[in-house]
Amino acid sequence: MGRSIAISKDGGTLLGHAKDPITVGLALDAIISETHFATTGASVVCLGSGGSGTALTWHLAHRADRPERVVITAHRQVSLDRTREIHERSGLNTDQFEYRLLNAESPAEDADRIVTEAGAYALIANATGMGKDRPGSPLTDTVVFPRHAIAWEFNYRGTLEFLHQAEAAQSRRELTFVDGWECFIHGWSQVIAEVFHTPMPPERVAELSRIASTVR
User: CATH number for the domain including 29?
Assistant: First the structure.
């Protein structure tokens, strides 16, 4: 998923819009119910602490049924520090988050353990860019997903190894898996709304998604 950034004009004023927290939230709301975390007690594992991952964690902290535990992983400490700084600057309660630096010698195996320990109904998001920007998955092929977990691949194109890992485990772990198409559609529709000052009600977004899917 690319970052949704728009520049628009309002009269003589030039405006900048960072849409990721909004578009990620709209996409998540299309994937899970508004009471998912309240009714299941599910946790979240966000694999990756870049722009998309940070946007997801920001949105989760503002949900009415925000999860009690959100694990954020990264290969570099500086990435985790940057995410924590954004959380603190936004006035979020950082006690909700666990900032986990992956083992440098075996990061995928370390990520496997974090995913397996997340518990039933967990939301597992691949926000690393692996599977689109570069081939591969943040997990190994032997990962054991929690039962009834929701595996969210932020990418909608590319090799999508993470998505295929979840698909392979679907029946035996009773998983739900989705790709990043909703993020893509909401990202561009939000940019269009700002640049062209055009309302984007749900039915219009659905129509854009239908049209775009014909050439996907």
Answer: 3.40.50.720
CA atoms within 13 A on the CB side of 57: 33
| Residue 39 within a domain | yes
Which pTM was predicted? 0.88
N-term to C-term CA, the chain: 15
pLDDT digits (tens, 9 = 90+) for 141-192: 999 999 999 999 999 999 999 999 999 999 999 999 999 988 888 878 888 8
What range does the domain containing 175 cover? 22-179
Q: How many domains does the chain have?
A: 1
How many secondary structure helices (H) and strands (E) does the chain include? 8, 8
Residues 6+ apart with CB under 8 A from 117: none
Provide the residue count of the chain: 216
* pLDDT tens, position by position, 73-84: 999 999 999 999
